[in-house]
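[[Per-residue structure]]
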Amino acid sequence: MRELLPYLKLYKKHWFGLSLGMLLAFLTVAASIGLLTLSGWFLSAAAVAGLTIARQTFNYMLPGAFVRGFAMGRTAGRWGERVVSHNATFKLLTDLRVFFFSKLAPLIPGRISNLRDADLLNRLVADIDAMDHVYLRLVSPMVVGTLGIMALSALVCWFDNQLGLILGAILFALLLAWPLVFYKLGKRNGSELTQHKADLRIATLDWLQGYSELTLFGAEQRYRNVIVTTQEKLLKNQFFNAHFSGLAQALLLLANGWTLVLMLWLAADGVGGNTPDPMIALVAFATMASVELLMPIAGAFQHLGQTLTSARRLNDIILSEPEVQFTQQDVAHNGEFSLAYQGVSFHYPDSQTQVLKHVDLSIPAQHRIAIVGQTGSGKSTLIQLLNRYWDVQQGTIEIGGKPLQQWSESQLRKAISVVSQRVDVLNGTLRDNLLMAKPDANDNELIQVLNRVGLEKLTLDQGLDAWLGDGGRQLSGGEKRRIGIARALLHNAPILLLDEPTEGLDKQTEQQIMSLFEQHFIGKTVVFITHRLVNLDKMDSICLIEHGEIVEHGSHQALVEQRGRYYQLTQTL
Protein backbone atom coordinates (compact mmCIF):
# COMPACT_ATOMS: atom_id res chain seq x y z
CA MET A 1 0.00 0.00 0.00
CA ARG A 2 3.05 2.27 0.19
CA GLU A 3 2.62 2.87 -3.52
CA LEU A 4 -0.48 4.98 -2.79
CA LEU A 5 1.18 7.36 -0.31
CA PRO A 6 2.19 10.03 -2.90
CA TYR A 7 -1.45 10.26 -4.00
CA LEU A 8 -3.03 10.18 -0.56
CA LYS A 9 -0.96 13.27 0.26
CA LEU A 10 -2.77 15.14 -2.51
CA TYR A 11 -6.04 14.52 -0.68
CA LYS A 12 -5.13 17.21 1.86
CA LYS A 13 -5.92 19.91 -0.69
CA HIS A 14 -9.46 18.58 -1.21
CA TRP A 15 -10.10 17.30 2.32
CA PHE A 16 -13.30 19.29 2.70
CA GLY A 17 -14.99 18.03 -0.49
CA LEU A 18 -13.86 14.45 0.08
CA SER A 19 -14.92 14.49 3.75
CA LEU A 20 -18.26 16.08 2.87
CA GLY A 21 -18.79 13.38 0.24
CA MET A 22 -18.20 10.65 2.84
CA LEU A 23 -20.51 12.40 5.32
CA LEU A 24 -23.29 12.62 2.72
CA ALA A 25 -22.70 8.97 1.80
CA PHE A 26 -23.04 8.00 5.46
CA LEU A 27 -26.23 10.05 5.88
CA THR A 28 -27.65 8.48 2.71
CA VAL A 29 -26.92 4.97 3.99
CA ALA A 30 -28.37 5.89 7.38
CA ALA A 31 -31.54 7.15 5.67
CA SER A 32 -31.80 3.94 3.63
CA ILE A 33 -31.34 1.71 6.67
CA GLY A 34 -33.71 3.88 8.71
CA LEU A 35 -36.32 3.72 5.94
CA LEU A 36 -36.24 -0.07 5.69
CA THR A 37 -35.97 -0.66 9.44
CA LEU A 38 -38.73 1.76 10.39
CA SER A 39 -40.96 0.49 7.57
CA GLY A 40 -40.57 -3.09 8.81
CA TRP A 41 -41.46 -2.16 12.35
CA PHE A 42 -44.27 0.17 11.23
CA LEU A 43 -45.97 -2.46 9.06
CA SER A 44 -45.70 -5.11 11.77
CA ALA A 45 -46.86 -2.76 14.54
CA ALA A 46 -49.75 -1.51 12.41
CA ALA A 47 -50.81 -5.08 11.65
CA VAL A 48 -50.71 -6.03 15.32
CA ALA A 49 -52.55 -2.85 16.31
CA GLY A 50 -55.23 -3.57 13.72
CA LEU A 51 -55.94 -6.92 15.34
CA THR A 52 -56.26 -5.48 18.83
CA ILE A 53 -57.93 -2.61 20.62
CA ALA A 54 -54.69 -0.63 20.19
CA ARG A 55 -55.87 0.40 16.73
CA GLN A 56 -57.73 3.28 18.33
CA THR A 57 -54.63 4.67 20.05
CA PHE A 58 -51.86 3.65 17.62
CA ASN A 59 -49.97 6.68 16.22
CA TYR A 60 -49.93 6.21 12.45
CA MET A 61 -48.89 9.76 11.61
CA LEU A 62 -45.48 10.05 13.28
CA PRO A 63 -43.92 6.82 11.87
CA GLY A 64 -45.43 7.63 8.47
CA ALA A 65 -43.84 11.06 8.55
CA PHE A 66 -40.47 9.55 9.40
CA VAL A 67 -40.80 7.01 6.57
CA ARG A 68 -41.47 9.80 4.09
CA GLY A 69 -38.66 11.89 5.57
CA PHE A 70 -36.18 9.02 5.26
CA ALA A 71 -37.27 8.44 1.64
CA MET A 72 -36.74 12.09 0.68
CA GLY A 73 -33.48 12.21 2.66
CA ARG A 74 -32.13 9.16 0.85
CA THR A 75 -32.91 10.66 -2.56
CA ALA A 76 -31.42 14.06 -1.73
CA GLY A 77 -28.43 12.51 0.02
CA ARG A 78 -27.65 10.20 -2.90
CA TRP A 79 -27.75 13.10 -5.34
CA GLY A 80 -25.67 15.35 -3.08
CA GLU A 81 -23.11 12.63 -2.39
CA ARG A 82 -22.65 11.94 -6.10
CA VAL A 83 -22.23 15.62 -6.93
CA VAL A 84 -19.85 16.43 -4.09
CA SER A 85 -17.68 13.31 -4.17
CA HIS A 86 -17.34 13.21 -7.96
CA ASN A 87 -16.61 16.92 -8.13
CA ALA A 88 -13.86 16.50 -5.52
CA THR A 89 -12.53 13.41 -7.32
CA PHE A 90 -12.38 15.15 -10.69
CA LYS A 91 -10.54 18.08 -9.12
CA LEU A 92 -8.19 15.62 -7.48
CA LEU A 93 -7.50 13.88 -10.80
CA THR A 94 -6.88 17.27 -12.40
CA ASP A 95 -4.30 18.11 -9.74
CA LEU A 96 -2.80 14.64 -10.12
CA ARG A 97 -2.35 15.10 -13.87
CA VAL A 98 -0.69 18.47 -13.31
CA PHE A 99 1.47 16.95 -10.57
CA PHE A 100 2.42 14.02 -12.80
CA PHE A 101 3.25 16.28 -15.76
CA SER A 102 5.36 18.56 -13.53
CA LYS A 103 7.39 15.50 -12.54
CA LEU A 104 7.49 14.15 -16.10
CA ALA A 105 8.73 17.27 -17.90
CA PRO A 106 12.15 17.50 -16.16
CA LEU A 107 12.83 13.83 -17.00
CA ILE A 108 12.79 14.53 -20.75
CA PRO A 109 14.79 13.25 -22.55
CA GLY A 110 17.04 11.46 -20.04
CA ARG A 111 15.03 9.23 -17.72
CA ILE A 112 12.18 8.44 -20.12
CA SER A 113 14.16 8.00 -23.33
CA ASN A 114 13.32 4.27 -23.26
CA LEU A 115 9.56 4.78 -22.83
CA ARG A 116 7.27 4.88 -25.83
CA ASP A 117 4.90 7.75 -26.49
CA ALA A 118 1.82 5.50 -26.22
CA ASP A 119 3.01 4.15 -22.87
CA LEU A 120 3.46 7.68 -21.52
CA LEU A 121 0.00 8.57 -22.82
CA ASN A 122 -1.47 5.54 -21.09
CA ARG A 123 0.14 6.55 -17.79
CA LEU A 124 -1.10 10.10 -18.15
CA VAL A 125 -4.68 9.01 -18.92
CA ALA A 126 -5.62 5.45 -17.91
CA ASP A 127 -3.29 4.99 -14.94
CA ILE A 128 -4.24 8.33 -13.40
CA ASP A 129 -7.94 7.57 -13.98
CA ALA A 130 -7.43 4.37 -11.99
CA MET A 131 -6.51 6.50 -8.99
CA ASP A 132 -10.16 7.49 -8.53
CA HIS A 133 -10.67 3.93 -7.21
CA VAL A 134 -8.66 4.88 -4.15
CA TYR A 135 -11.32 7.27 -2.91
CA LEU A 136 -14.55 6.16 -4.60
CA ARG A 137 -14.06 2.40 -4.20
CA LEU A 138 -11.69 2.01 -1.27
CA VAL A 139 -11.48 4.90 1.20
CA SER A 140 -15.07 6.12 1.08
CA PRO A 141 -16.81 2.67 1.21
CA MET A 142 -14.57 1.50 4.06
CA VAL A 143 -15.08 4.66 6.14
CA VAL A 144 -18.82 4.75 5.48
CA GLY A 145 -19.11 1.00 6.10
CA THR A 146 -17.28 1.20 9.41
CA LEU A 147 -19.33 4.15 10.65
CA GLY A 148 -22.54 2.55 9.39
CA ILE A 149 -21.89 -0.74 11.17
CA MET A 150 -21.14 1.11 14.40
CA ALA A 151 -24.35 3.14 14.09
CA LEU A 152 -26.49 0.11 13.18
CA SER A 153 -25.03 -1.95 16.02
CA ALA A 154 -25.69 0.91 18.45
CA LEU A 155 -29.31 1.12 17.23
CA VAL A 156 -29.96 -2.58 17.80
CA CYS A 157 -28.08 -2.48 21.13
CA TRP A 158 -30.49 0.25 22.21
CA PHE A 159 -33.20 -2.39 22.21
CA ASP A 160 -31.14 -5.55 22.92
CA ASN A 161 -27.42 -5.56 23.74
CA GLN A 162 -26.86 -9.19 22.83
CA LEU A 163 -28.47 -8.90 19.40
CA GLY A 164 -26.67 -5.64 18.65
CA LEU A 165 -23.23 -7.00 19.58
CA ILE A 166 -23.76 -10.21 17.60
CA LEU A 167 -24.92 -8.30 14.51
CA GLY A 168 -22.02 -5.84 14.81
CA ALA A 169 -19.47 -8.67 15.20
CA ILE A 170 -20.78 -10.46 12.10
CA LEU A 171 -20.80 -7.29 10.01
CA PHE A 172 -17.29 -6.28 11.09
CA ALA A 173 -16.03 -9.78 10.31
CA LEU A 174 -17.48 -9.50 6.80
CA LEU A 175 -16.07 -5.97 6.42
CA LEU A 176 -12.55 -7.23 7.18
CA ALA A 177 -12.69 -10.61 5.46
CA TRP A 178 -14.38 -9.71 2.17
CA PRO A 179 -11.81 -7.13 0.99
CA LEU A 180 -8.87 -9.37 1.92
CA VAL A 181 -10.26 -12.45 0.16
CA PHE A 182 -11.25 -10.69 -3.05
CA TYR A 183 -8.08 -8.59 -3.14
CA LYS A 184 -6.09 -11.83 -3.17
CA LEU A 185 -8.36 -13.29 -5.86
CA GLY A 186 -8.23 -10.18 -8.07
CA LYS A 187 -4.63 -9.05 -7.47
CA ARG A 188 -3.00 -10.88 -10.37
CA ASN A 189 -5.83 -10.19 -12.79
CA GLY A 190 -5.85 -6.48 -11.90
CA SER A 191 -2.14 -6.22 -12.58
CA GLU A 192 -2.50 -8.01 -15.91
CA LEU A 193 -5.49 -5.85 -16.86
CA THR A 194 -3.49 -2.66 -16.37
CA GLN A 195 -0.56 -3.98 -18.39
CA HIS A 196 -2.75 -5.32 -21.21
CA LYS A 197 -4.58 -1.98 -21.40
CA ALA A 198 -1.21 -0.27 -21.89
CA ASP A 199 -0.13 -2.90 -24.45
CA LEU A 200 -3.35 -2.41 -26.43
CA ARG A 201 -2.86 1.37 -26.56
CA ILE A 202 0.76 0.96 -27.68
CA ALA A 203 -0.07 -1.63 -30.36
CA THR A 204 -2.98 0.44 -31.70
CA LEU A 205 -0.95 3.65 -31.86
CA ASP A 206 1.91 1.86 -33.62
CA TRP A 207 -0.54 0.50 -36.19
CA LEU A 208 -2.16 3.89 -36.78
CA GLN A 209 1.10 5.85 -37.04
CA GLY A 210 2.82 3.34 -39.28
CA TYR A 211 -0.15 2.29 -41.39
CA SER A 212 1.26 3.57 -44.69
CA GLU A 213 4.63 1.86 -44.26
CA LEU A 214 3.00 -1.34 -42.96
CA THR A 215 0.74 -1.46 -46.01
CA LEU A 216 3.63 -0.87 -48.42
CA PHE A 217 5.68 -3.70 -46.91
CA GLY A 218 2.74 -6.08 -46.49
CA ALA A 219 3.03 -6.15 -42.68
CA GLU A 220 -0.27 -4.43 -41.85
CA GLN A 221 -2.15 -7.69 -41.17
CA ARG A 222 0.55 -8.93 -38.77
CA TYR A 223 0.41 -5.73 -36.72
CA ARG A 224 -3.38 -5.81 -36.74
CA ASN A 225 -3.26 -9.35 -35.38
CA VAL A 226 -1.14 -8.09 -32.49
CA ILE A 227 -3.94 -5.64 -31.66
CA VAL A 228 -6.55 -8.41 -31.80
CA THR A 229 -4.46 -10.69 -29.58
CA THR A 230 -3.87 -7.95 -27.01
CA GLN A 231 -7.54 -7.03 -27.07
CA GLU A 232 -8.55 -10.63 -26.41
CA LYS A 233 -6.27 -10.71 -23.36
CA LEU A 234 -7.80 -7.48 -22.07
CA LEU A 235 -11.35 -8.76 -22.61
CA LYS A 236 -10.44 -11.91 -20.73
CA ASN A 237 -9.23 -9.80 -17.79
CA GLN A 238 -12.41 -7.72 -17.87
CA PHE A 239 -14.55 -10.87 -17.96
CA PHE A 240 -12.64 -12.20 -14.95
CA ASN A 241 -13.28 -8.94 -13.09
CA ALA A 242 -16.99 -9.01 -13.88
CA HIS A 243 -17.20 -12.67 -12.86
CA PHE A 244 -15.64 -12.05 -9.46
CA SER A 245 -17.68 -8.88 -8.89
CA GLY A 246 -20.82 -10.95 -9.37
CA LEU A 247 -19.45 -13.73 -7.17
CA ALA A 248 -18.57 -11.27 -4.39
CA GLN A 249 -22.06 -9.77 -4.42
CA ALA A 250 -23.75 -13.17 -4.56
CA LEU A 251 -21.76 -14.51 -1.61
CA LEU A 252 -22.43 -11.31 0.33
CA LEU A 253 -26.16 -11.70 -0.21
CA LEU A 254 -25.85 -15.32 0.91
CA ALA A 255 -24.00 -14.25 4.08
CA ASN A 256 -26.64 -11.61 4.72
CA GLY A 257 -29.37 -14.22 4.34
CA TRP A 258 -27.77 -16.58 6.85
CA THR A 259 -27.22 -13.66 9.23
CA LEU A 260 -30.92 -12.82 8.92
CA VAL A 261 -31.85 -16.41 9.79
CA LEU A 262 -29.56 -16.29 12.83
CA MET A 263 -30.94 -12.96 14.04
CA LEU A 264 -34.55 -14.18 13.63
CA TRP A 265 -33.74 -17.32 15.59
CA LEU A 266 -32.12 -15.28 18.40
CA ALA A 267 -34.96 -12.73 18.49
CA ALA A 268 -37.81 -15.23 18.22
CA ASP A 269 -38.43 -15.24 21.99
CA GLY A 270 -38.58 -11.46 22.11
CA VAL A 271 -36.30 -8.43 21.96
CA GLY A 272 -34.83 -6.91 25.13
CA GLY A 273 -36.49 -9.51 27.39
CA ASN A 274 -39.98 -8.62 26.18
CA THR A 275 -42.54 -10.99 24.76
CA PRO A 276 -42.52 -11.43 20.97
CA ASP A 277 -43.67 -8.18 19.40
CA PRO A 278 -43.11 -6.00 16.28
CA MET A 279 -39.53 -5.29 17.48
CA ILE A 280 -38.60 -8.66 15.94
CA ALA A 281 -39.42 -7.14 12.55
CA LEU A 282 -37.22 -4.14 13.37
CA VAL A 283 -34.24 -6.43 14.07
CA ALA A 284 -34.94 -8.51 10.95
CA PHE A 285 -35.24 -5.52 8.65
CA ALA A 286 -32.17 -3.89 10.22
CA THR A 287 -30.23 -7.06 9.38
CA MET A 288 -31.58 -7.02 5.82
CA ALA A 289 -30.63 -3.36 5.44
CA SER A 290 -27.06 -4.04 6.57
CA VAL A 291 -26.26 -5.43 3.13
CA GLU A 292 -26.32 -1.87 1.81
CA LEU A 293 -23.32 -1.10 4.02
CA LEU A 294 -21.28 -3.98 2.70
CA MET A 295 -22.30 -4.07 -0.96
CA PRO A 296 -19.94 -1.23 -2.05
CA ILE A 297 -16.93 -3.09 -0.66
CA ALA A 298 -17.99 -6.48 -2.04
CA GLY A 299 -15.94 -6.16 -5.21
CA ALA A 300 -14.04 -2.96 -4.55
CA PHE A 301 -10.83 -4.56 -3.38
CA GLN A 302 -10.53 -6.78 -6.42
CA HIS A 303 -9.74 -3.48 -8.22
CA LEU A 304 -6.99 -2.74 -5.70
CA GLY A 305 -4.50 -4.85 -7.68
CA GLN A 306 -5.24 -2.77 -10.78
CA THR A 307 -4.93 0.46 -8.78
CA LEU A 308 -1.64 -0.57 -7.17
CA THR A 309 -0.18 -1.54 -10.55
CA SER A 310 -1.19 1.85 -11.98
CA ALA A 311 0.34 3.53 -8.93
CA ARG A 312 3.63 1.68 -9.48
CA ARG A 313 3.69 2.70 -13.14
CA LEU A 314 3.09 6.32 -12.16
CA ASN A 315 5.70 6.10 -9.39
CA ASP A 316 8.29 5.10 -12.00
CA ILE A 317 7.94 8.67 -13.22
CA ILE A 318 6.97 10.61 -10.11
CA LEU A 319 9.70 9.22 -7.85
CA SER A 320 12.45 9.49 -10.46
CA GLU A 321 15.05 12.19 -10.04
CA PRO A 322 15.88 14.26 -13.15
CA GLU A 323 19.36 13.70 -14.48
CA VAL A 324 19.63 17.44 -15.10
CA GLN A 325 18.93 19.76 -12.17
CA PHE A 326 18.59 23.50 -12.82
CA THR A 327 19.34 26.18 -10.27
CA GLN A 328 16.58 28.65 -9.42
CA GLN A 329 18.88 31.71 -9.34
CA ASP A 330 19.97 33.54 -12.50
CA VAL A 331 23.73 33.69 -13.01
CA ALA A 332 25.45 37.06 -13.20
CA HIS A 333 27.70 37.44 -16.26
CA ASN A 334 29.26 40.16 -18.37
CA GLY A 335 26.75 39.96 -21.22
CA GLU A 336 29.25 38.32 -23.55
CA PHE A 337 27.90 35.04 -24.93
CA SER A 338 31.08 33.11 -25.59
CA LEU A 339 31.05 29.30 -25.53
CA ALA A 340 33.69 26.95 -24.18
CA TYR A 341 33.99 23.15 -24.06
CA GLN A 342 36.80 22.16 -21.69
CA GLY A 343 37.86 18.51 -21.62
CA VAL A 344 34.31 17.34 -22.35
CA SER A 345 33.66 13.59 -22.51
CA PHE A 346 30.17 12.16 -22.76
CA HIS A 347 28.28 8.92 -23.27
CA TYR A 348 24.53 8.40 -23.29
CA PRO A 349 22.97 6.93 -20.12
CA ASP A 350 22.00 3.64 -21.77
CA SER A 351 25.43 3.11 -23.38
CA GLN A 352 29.08 3.11 -22.34
CA THR A 353 30.34 4.07 -25.79
CA GLN A 354 31.97 7.50 -25.68
CA VAL A 355 30.22 9.90 -28.05
CA LEU A 356 32.60 12.78 -27.25
CA LYS A 357 36.19 12.31 -26.11
CA HIS A 358 38.10 15.10 -24.34
CA VAL A 359 36.70 17.87 -26.53
CA ASP A 360 38.33 21.29 -26.07
CA LEU A 361 36.68 24.03 -28.08
CA SER A 362 36.54 27.78 -27.44
CA ILE A 363 34.05 29.93 -29.37
CA PRO A 364 34.37 33.70 -28.78
CA ALA A 365 31.28 35.88 -28.47
CA GLN A 366 29.70 36.91 -31.82
CA HIS A 367 31.80 34.25 -33.53
CA ARG A 368 30.40 32.01 -36.28
CA ILE A 369 31.67 28.45 -36.26
CA ALA A 370 30.69 25.56 -38.52
CA ILE A 371 31.03 22.07 -37.07
CA VAL A 372 31.30 19.46 -39.79
CA GLY A 373 31.71 15.72 -39.82
CA GLN A 374 30.08 12.50 -40.86
CA THR A 375 26.80 11.25 -39.44
CA GLY A 376 27.28 9.88 -35.93
CA SER A 377 30.50 11.78 -35.26
CA GLY A 378 29.00 13.67 -32.28
CA LYS A 379 28.09 17.00 -33.87
CA SER A 380 24.49 17.15 -32.65
CA THR A 381 25.53 15.98 -29.20
CA LEU A 382 27.60 19.15 -28.79
CA ILE A 383 24.56 21.42 -29.03
CA GLN A 384 22.36 19.01 -27.04
CA LEU A 385 24.82 19.29 -24.16
CA LEU A 386 24.79 23.06 -24.56
CA ASN A 387 20.99 22.95 -24.13
CA ARG A 388 21.45 20.65 -21.11
CA TYR A 389 19.54 17.72 -22.52
CA TRP A 390 22.15 15.82 -20.52
CA ASP A 391 25.09 16.77 -18.34
CA VAL A 392 28.62 15.76 -19.25
CA GLN A 393 30.34 12.98 -17.32
CA GLN A 394 33.72 14.70 -17.57
CA GLY A 395 34.81 18.28 -18.21
CA THR A 396 32.83 21.52 -18.19
CA ILE A 397 30.82 23.68 -20.59
CA GLU A 398 30.69 27.44 -20.10
CA ILE A 399 28.58 30.27 -21.51
CA GLY A 400 29.93 33.76 -20.97
CA GLY A 401 32.66 32.35 -18.73
CA LYS A 402 30.10 30.82 -16.34
CA PRO A 403 29.60 27.04 -15.94
CA LEU A 404 26.42 25.83 -17.57
CA GLN A 405 25.15 24.40 -14.25
CA GLN A 406 24.97 27.94 -12.82
CA TRP A 407 22.45 29.10 -15.44
CA SER A 408 18.77 28.87 -14.54
CA GLU A 409 16.54 27.15 -17.07
CA SER A 410 14.61 30.30 -18.04
CA GLN A 411 17.84 32.27 -18.43
CA LEU A 412 19.39 29.53 -20.58
CA ARG A 413 16.33 29.28 -22.85
CA LYS A 414 16.28 33.05 -23.37
CA ALA A 415 19.96 33.00 -24.35
CA ILE A 416 19.69 30.26 -27.00
CA SER A 417 17.71 29.81 -30.22
CA VAL A 418 17.76 26.35 -31.75
CA VAL A 419 16.89 24.93 -35.14
CA SER A 420 17.06 21.18 -34.56
CA GLN A 421 17.01 18.32 -37.02
CA ARG A 422 13.54 17.34 -35.87
CA VAL A 423 11.05 20.21 -35.93
CA ASP A 424 7.82 19.38 -34.13
CA VAL A 425 4.65 20.99 -35.44
CA LEU A 426 2.04 21.15 -32.69
CA ASN A 427 -1.64 20.43 -33.22
CA GLY A 428 -2.87 24.01 -33.39
CA THR A 429 -3.06 27.05 -35.62
CA LEU A 430 -0.14 28.44 -37.59
CA ARG A 431 -0.19 31.39 -35.22
CA ASP A 432 0.11 29.10 -32.16
CA ASN A 433 3.08 27.31 -33.69
CA LEU A 434 4.94 30.61 -34.10
CA LEU A 435 3.89 32.39 -30.90
CA MET A 436 5.62 29.71 -28.84
CA ALA A 437 8.88 31.39 -29.86
CA LYS A 438 7.70 34.95 -29.16
CA PRO A 439 4.37 35.17 -27.29
CA ASP A 440 4.05 38.95 -27.67
CA ALA A 441 4.52 39.01 -31.48
CA ASN A 442 1.70 40.57 -33.51
CA ASP A 443 0.22 39.12 -36.70
CA ASN A 444 2.20 41.44 -39.00
CA GLU A 445 5.45 40.27 -37.44
CA LEU A 446 4.46 36.64 -37.88
CA ILE A 447 3.54 37.15 -41.54
CA GLN A 448 6.82 38.97 -42.21
CA VAL A 449 8.91 36.15 -40.77
CA LEU A 450 6.95 33.58 -42.81
CA ASN A 451 7.66 35.59 -45.95
CA ARG A 452 11.36 35.73 -45.07
CA VAL A 453 11.62 31.94 -44.88
CA GLY A 454 9.60 31.41 -48.06
CA LEU A 455 6.35 30.22 -46.47
CA GLU A 456 4.13 33.01 -47.69
CA LYS A 457 1.76 30.47 -49.26
CA LEU A 458 0.82 29.29 -45.76
CA THR A 459 -0.74 32.70 -45.11
CA LEU A 460 -3.26 32.24 -47.95
CA ASP A 461 -6.84 31.07 -47.39
CA GLN A 462 -7.23 30.90 -43.60
CA GLY A 463 -3.97 32.72 -42.97
CA LEU A 464 -2.54 32.45 -39.46
CA ASP A 465 -5.70 30.65 -38.33
CA ALA A 466 -4.90 27.65 -40.55
CA TRP A 467 -4.85 24.45 -38.50
CA LEU A 468 -1.63 22.43 -38.57
CA GLY A 469 -0.91 18.92 -37.35
CA ASP A 470 -3.43 16.10 -36.96
CA GLY A 471 -6.66 16.86 -38.78
CA GLY A 472 -5.18 19.96 -40.38
CA ARG A 473 -2.81 21.02 -43.15
CA GLN A 474 0.03 18.55 -43.56
CA LEU A 475 3.48 20.09 -43.99
CA SER A 476 6.37 18.66 -45.96
CA GLY A 477 9.75 18.06 -44.36
CA GLY A 478 11.12 21.25 -45.91
CA GLU A 479 8.17 23.31 -44.69
CA LYS A 480 8.60 21.97 -41.16
CA ARG A 481 12.28 22.90 -41.29
CA ARG A 482 11.40 26.45 -42.32
CA ILE A 483 8.82 26.67 -39.51
CA GLY A 484 11.71 25.87 -37.15
CA ILE A 485 13.86 28.58 -38.76
CA ALA A 486 10.98 31.07 -38.43
CA ARG A 487 10.75 30.27 -34.71
CA ALA A 488 14.49 30.89 -34.30
CA LEU A 489 14.20 34.24 -36.07
CA LEU A 490 11.32 35.25 -33.82
CA HIS A 491 13.12 34.17 -30.65
CA ASN A 492 16.16 36.19 -31.71
CA ALA A 493 18.48 35.01 -28.91
CA PRO A 494 22.17 36.01 -28.74
CA ILE A 495 23.27 32.37 -29.27
CA LEU A 496 22.05 30.58 -32.39
CA LEU A 497 22.41 26.80 -32.72
CA LEU A 498 21.67 25.34 -36.14
CA ASP A 499 21.60 21.57 -36.64
CA GLU A 500 21.44 20.78 -40.37
CA PRO A 501 19.08 23.76 -40.97
CA THR A 502 18.95 23.34 -44.75
CA GLU A 503 18.45 19.57 -44.78
CA GLY A 504 15.52 18.62 -47.04
CA LEU A 505 15.49 21.97 -48.88
CA ASP A 506 16.01 22.36 -52.61
CA LYS A 507 19.04 24.29 -53.90
CA GLN A 508 17.17 27.52 -54.54
CA THR A 509 15.47 27.55 -51.11
CA GLU A 510 18.76 26.58 -49.47
CA GLN A 511 20.50 29.61 -50.97
CA GLN A 512 17.59 31.81 -49.87
CA ILE A 513 17.84 30.53 -46.29
CA MET A 514 21.63 30.86 -46.21
CA SER A 515 21.35 34.47 -47.37
CA LEU A 516 18.79 35.07 -44.64
CA PHE A 517 21.14 33.56 -42.07
CA GLU A 518 23.98 35.86 -43.13
CA GLN A 519 21.83 38.83 -42.17
CA HIS A 520 20.62 37.22 -38.95
CA PHE A 521 24.11 36.09 -37.85
CA ILE A 522 25.27 39.67 -37.24
CA GLY A 523 26.09 40.20 -33.56
CA LYS A 524 25.31 36.60 -32.57
CA THR A 525 27.34 33.60 -31.45
CA VAL A 526 26.54 30.96 -34.06
CA VAL A 527 27.14 27.21 -34.02
CA PHE A 528 26.32 25.83 -37.47
CA ILE A 529 26.27 22.02 -37.71
CA THR A 530 26.25 20.47 -41.16
CA HIS A 531 27.67 17.66 -43.24
CA ARG A 532 27.05 19.64 -46.43
CA LEU A 533 30.08 21.82 -47.08
CA VAL A 534 28.15 24.76 -48.52
CA ASN A 535 29.03 28.45 -47.89
CA LEU A 536 31.48 27.49 -45.17
CA ASP A 537 33.98 30.04 -46.46
CA LYS A 538 31.72 32.70 -44.93
CA MET A 539 32.15 31.23 -41.44
CA ASP A 540 34.74 32.60 -39.03
CA SER A 541 36.08 29.12 -38.31
CA ILE A 542 35.54 25.46 -39.15
CA CYS A 543 35.71 22.56 -36.69
CA LEU A 544 36.00 19.04 -38.09
CA ILE A 545 34.95 16.31 -35.68
CA GLU A 546 35.24 12.56 -36.23
CA HIS A 547 34.43 9.76 -33.80
CA GLY A 548 33.83 12.27 -31.03
CA GLU A 549 37.20 13.99 -31.33
CA ILE A 550 38.20 17.29 -32.90
CA VAL A 551 40.43 16.52 -35.86
CA GLU A 552 40.97 20.00 -37.31
CA HIS A 553 40.00 23.53 -36.26
CA GLY A 554 40.66 26.77 -38.10
CA SER A 555 39.42 29.10 -40.80
CA HIS A 556 38.20 27.71 -44.10
CA GLN A 557 41.19 29.10 -46.00
CA ALA A 558 43.71 27.86 -43.44
CA LEU A 559 42.27 24.32 -43.40
CA VAL A 560 42.25 24.15 -47.20
CA GLU A 561 45.88 25.25 -47.31
CA GLN A 562 46.82 22.55 -44.79
CA ARG A 563 45.50 19.96 -47.27
CA GLY A 564 44.42 17.75 -44.40
CA ARG A 565 41.23 15.89 -43.70
CA TYR A 566 38.95 18.92 -44.29
CA TYR A 567 40.60 19.57 -47.66
CA GLN A 568 39.98 15.94 -48.66
CA LEU A 569 36.30 16.29 -47.80
CA THR A 570 35.97 19.43 -49.92
CA GLN A 571 37.47 17.60 -52.88
CA THR A 572 34.81 14.88 -52.75
CA LEU A 573 32.02 17.39 -53.49
Q: What stands out?
A: Residues 161-209 form the longest helix (49 residues).
